[in-house]
Input
Amino acid sequence: MTKEEFSWTYDQFERYYVLGRCVACFFKNEKISILDVGGISSDQVGEKLWLPAREILLEFQRQSNEKAFSLAESQIYVVDLSFCREPGAIQGDGCFLPFKNNSFDLVASLDTLEHVHPDSREQFIIELCRVSRDMVLIAAPLGDKNVELVENVLFEQIKQLYGLEHQQLRQHREYGLPRREEVTKILKTKISQVGGFFWGSLDRFFFFQSIKNLFLFHPQARWLLQCLDKFIINRVGSFDRNPPYSHYFWLASKKRKKDEFSRGLNQILEANNQAADNQLQNKSDGSKASESEYLSDLTRINKEITKLAHSELVTAVVVARKGGYILERCLNNLLTQEVYFPLEIAVWDISEGSDIRYQLKVFFPAITYICLEKRKEITTQQAFLEVVLQVKGTHLLFIDEKAMLPQNGVITLFEILHQDESRKLVSPRVVDDQKHLRVGFFAKIPPRSTWNNILKMLKLAENKPIEGRVWTWSECVFMKRSLLTSLRGVNESREEERYSISQRGKRLFFWGPAEVIYLEDLLVNWREW
Output
């Protein structure tokens, strides 16, 4: 597949692949009209509705090099209970189709019958037969113990992972899956020629769907879900017809004689076998370019699965000097952050006399408490490294207890840090109530005598930031853990070393070759005083 926006899943493609084979075998060189009942679908992330029939059938035609039929010039309509603004979509009920008798050459319903109430299924099938002037194609998962076992496991998996019930699988349970004999019996009361075949590998569906379920609702998994489906279609194939099967297809015709109908049915299955052989041949005799592309795709899939399956843990370290209400407000702000990854919270106590340990024990017992020995000889780098060793995060947010993040502040910093693999640190602007800038860049540690003129230095740094290995001072920085652990020694003056961390910690220092980003959208209400 070359499409960037890959709307369909591999099992959708499999169903419409069979429909394409049916058209190719029975309607050669004909412009036909097709009705797809229940064929409106949501895309993989649920952002929009679309009509898979035309798009997937045209893709099937391109892939299979079928030149004997003209889908592009055929008329394809879709009826569904859902309203959709796409051309060719009609809102309606499959049990009461708004068409005259014999209106379409081919009427299909793919994975819809199982969502019709059992009391209405006979009426639904009769309506499909009524509006068809020739062929009817119905596909559904069959109600046997193997299919029901797989669906129950997948249903419980989604419920356990996300606390949600999968709507389609829940309906399968409530209504029960169609029985092969029942559907065949109804079709034979309306159409003379009725046949069918099994299709799709149940174990393959079970295997890949189990993997996909792990990432269904992950906000960063869109590319991975699309790539997995493309990989299954292109490299694994949609042609496996070894038991246990995932679906059964009923095919019926009003016009075809028995011999012609049987030949067409056999052609569908033979074409399937030929496609499978061609795919295996292409795999074994693939060019170096295609093999390289294939391995490149697998490498990307491997990295994405690893990244998403092992969620990166973020640790927020609050540097506290006063504690009390100020610290409580900051911790409550962090505890209510909107995140999709684990967020560990720790408090680094650099106070002199405040009983921060007792405050956490009583009101925030789950939050990690960190307090280093009051050693004057410890360097700033050593102090931060000792703190890092006591927390688990692969990403670290150091924040002053007075700083207040927006509700999406942590997730915004996380996503901006990941926009560029080389980026190691993000430092947002912090603005006080006087609109003074509270973040800056320094080529070396500013002498203590310059603190009174710090805003002047910040103004200079804002106009012409220093690139490369810089010092960053901020009341809030977000960084990768690897930045701290890979640093060389920091040249602090002996005069500076004589002061305790609590005194030097009046400003947070960070260092290293890191790109510092100004976040304009986080300027407003960043800090409350």
Observations:
- The CA atoms of residues 55 and 461 lie 54 Å apart.
